[in-house]
């Protein structure tokens, strides 16, 4: 496979912040303000000291393109997942590859039974994306998140280890079938 995840390091800090501050990332995030260098450095330092957090860089064809972050609850064998692609105009299927790599990595390395996430109701691409990966809708917080004087619903999704095991081979076939697109064009 020409895609994978690796641990984020301090050398990645400015690239992660650059991605995080892009409009397409901020508008779909729960924390939508512009992140300063100092604030970002503090966040990353705290994250690196916390063994329940994992920050991973998504690599496609040796190019870093996004991030996958997990908050792991070891006692209850679950992890909360957030992610984004920092670049736009990427080949079709790039997000699916990030999702595949993230789920495979988490279930193989974190000893969790469940991965869960939250999606803002207006983020239609993310709603479809989670369905494609095999996540199931667990619920909805109605009028839960306030952005510029408007309340938005928040959808709650999860995938269990057995659901991932059932889904991943088929998803990998879809990825491999569409793998004729390249970053070079």
From TrEMBL:
GO molecular function, one term: acyltransferase activity, transferring groups other than amino-acyl groups
Coiled coil: none
Keywords (A to Z) from UniProt: Acyltransferase, Transferase
EC number: 2.3.1.202
Top-rank EC class of the record's enzyme: transferase
Record bears the keyword Transferase: yes
Pfam families reported for this sequence: Acetyltransf_4 (PF13420)
InterPro entries: Acyl_CoA_acyltransferase, GNAT_dom, PseH
Recorded superkingdom: Bacteria
Gene3D superfamilies in UniProt: 3.40.630.30
Domain N-acetyltransferase: 3-162
Signal peptide limits: none
Cross-referenced SUPFAM superfamilies: Acyl-CoA N-acyltransferases (Nat)
Entry keyword Transferase: yes
NCBIfam families, per the entry: PseH
Name of the protein in question: UDP-4-amino-4, 6-dideoxy-N-acetyl-beta-L-altrosamine N-acetyltransferase
Protein's organism: Heliorestis acidaminivorans
